[in-house]
């Protein structure tokens, strides 16, 4: 951590501050009466609201939350809840059997089976990778190596593809040899495709070739043999493919994009871009996604949005720079709007008299969930209680709390990037770094301030497409020296969207200004239309309004951005996902 002083900063979106809020919810979800197993879901509309356990409590929830805690602490330096985190980590490690896989546990009040669910294993290797990346703990590497070896060992291997013939593996092996003989690979995106993302990162960290082989053969399965994605890029909506389930489809695209970047495979990038562009046509431009294409179509998972964010970032990194702006709209709008900060509307209980230990708790639900992300939400409402689909289900889910944290981290860690000496400011969000601080006055003013800490040979700043170029102005101060530039000057722009500021010197302060766009769009979500008012990349009004915990319409806009005392987190060394 680089020492720094508190200063006046714009009171606008600060992702590391949001990570501090979600850290509170991650800690609050622990059930101290049930071995500190986290609750999986919450129903906030009931009076009183309640938390519930589920069969996802084990490898999935613990993996997601351990990963999220590591990312949130990296963003914030916040040490609250270390005792709870240690319980999560101990629980997490206790779920492994000698075969290297993580198994669901017996709940005496529920009919859940003790199996190694393949969806859980993705969260497991995700957490192990973040854990090893953040600590270098060789014991965790041993657990991870054994886990990866097990994932490879149980895969059914054919000439050019590998797959899993069931969604659960048991201590006695696959449930049916017939499934193997008939090649009954259940939803390859959910059980194979999404695994590629954490496995690839683990390979990059450790050189584990088992992990790389799994990535290679699972990617080939998805692209060439699975049928998950149709030739035009659309999602296969057959029942066997989970009705085109968005979280697992887009999570698979995220994994494929990363693998393509690593292997420099342009054909896979093309495959990903085609499907990603199709997926965007089913989402709103502010970031609401359908749950699937049929039964869950009305239910947005924060998980799906984070997959959109991550895939868009990778596509932007390989050269499709237009996705930086798309991702910033997701970060500014539905990701942060889906974070539960105001709980005045939640009715809770102040005692545990009616709790069913191991299954349900009514105790202090609002206090325990503040900072969590929506589990299933409507475009205009935190609670999805529409007539279509399955009606009202869960308002919070642990998977979405973990994913929401990862979405904050992906935005935060990619706001300022370095490559071969060039520093790029990709998102116009508040962010500190060892090179420079970014102070964003958006959406109140079209104004961004850069405070340079280290001299760098080349600085690029992305300017939103709606800002144009001729009226962009640059004001540069260094000591007593002042100079101005405009976006209309020759050779000021590269990669279509980036303002090239050339070399910058330590101590320099650069102020960029540009006109703000105010516009109105009609957004479509599963047959419904929403009139959306924008100021820059921020939604400031949505109609029709929600009824339970409405989104967007409480955002306040001022002529000048309000300021507050604060500081940005600047790290000497950072890790990236």
From TrEMBL:
Record-given protein name: DUF1680 family protein
Top-level taxonomy: Bacteria, Bacillati, Bacillota, Bacilli, Bacillales
